[in-house]
Amino acid sequence: MTDVTLSPDGDIITLDHGGATARFHAIWLRDNAWDPATRAPGNGQRLIALRDIDVGVHISAARLAGGQLQLTFAPEAREIAYDPDWLMAHRYDRDEVRAPGALPDGAEAWDAGLMENVPTGDFSAVRDHAEARRAWLAQIARYGFAKLTGGPVRDGALFDVVDLFGHVRPTNYGAKFEVRTEVNPTNLAYTGLGLQAHTDNPYRDPVPTVQVLYCLESTAEGGENMVVDGFAAARRLRTENPEWFDVLSGHCARFEYAGEAGVRLQSRRPMIELDPDGILRAVRFNNRSAAAITDVPFDVLPSYYAAYRRLGEIIDDPAMEVSFRLEPGESFLVDNTRVLHARKGYSGSGTRWFQGCYADMDGVRSTLAALETPRQEAAE
């Protein structure tokens, strides 16, 4: 059953459809019209600006015809058809109360229990088959990371991984960087030391939102890769101590990198970043790149450091960790705004050669959405 009710002033319609009820304002409906005069048929981009909609826009008539909702807008006297399913899928009339620290839509928090089923795809299948690629990208969107096995063992093979969803984002490290032991390295990542779980490049603005690490050689003992869900860590901190969560999300930290000539990267962002509606947006945690904290009030600083210390303890907790060893031709990708990665120490004997590069999550999400559209259309 579908039914529509128009308010006396024409400012609001109430739509009953598919067992749900939602209200919509006239200005929102006019702005989101899909008629050819409002949206380009080829790409869906708007052909009008908000200034082109009368400030006094209202609905003079509403009716259902042929499964469509027909609305007449005044004062322009234009009738526009709407798909009730589309409207209900995009309704904003909800009674949701989201506590700070809510997960983004589609994300699932995880801990060490995920080690029993590490998100993984096969390189050849993901490259050659749309459904395998969709499933692999869906795991990244859900968990913030995934492995890829069975790839080629050659210099630059990590670019083949990025080609599956997007484009490489070059940095001062180049289009790619080498991760193996060096003498007098410019970055601790290039030593055999174990590293605390961290997000990469927090000193950049904007930060690269994807990191790919690709294994080319691995005969050294140790060096297992580890990942930790930063969103799960932040939510655990909030459960334990909401005040500490608030202090880390309410004040900015500072990060910097000046490890090579001609480079001095700096940023100012909170360690736990929230959207205005409280949804987790990003976690930045990297002790090696942390600069002096100068944006926390004097009286709040002790609480800030207590919260900072506790977040680090949660991140270090083995119960939060998923670890795995990569063999040549294997790689993994992380959402660098969410998942912290680490490496256990490895011995000086044998070899260990990884290559890394950066890309962005908009490519992951775009490719995934494009692959999911045919599935949705087939289901309809």
TrEMBL record:
Requisite cofactors: Fe(2+); L-ascorbate
GO MF annotation terms: 2-oxoglutarate-dependent dioxygenase activity; metal ion binding
GO terms classed as biological process: carnitine biosynthetic process
InterPro entries from the UniProt entry: AlphaKG_dependent_hydroxylases, GBBH-like_N_sf, TauD-like_sf, TauD/TfdA-like
Record-linked Pfam families: TauD (PF02668)
Domain TauD/TfdA-like residues, every copy: 120-358
The keyword Nucleus appears for this protein: no
Keywords of this entry: Dioxygenase, Iron, Metal-binding, Oxidoreductase
Gene3D superfamilies xref list: 3.30.2020.30, Clavaminate synthase-like (3.60.130.10)
Protein name, as recorded: Gamma-butyrobetaine dioxygenase
Organism: Roseovarius nanhaiticus
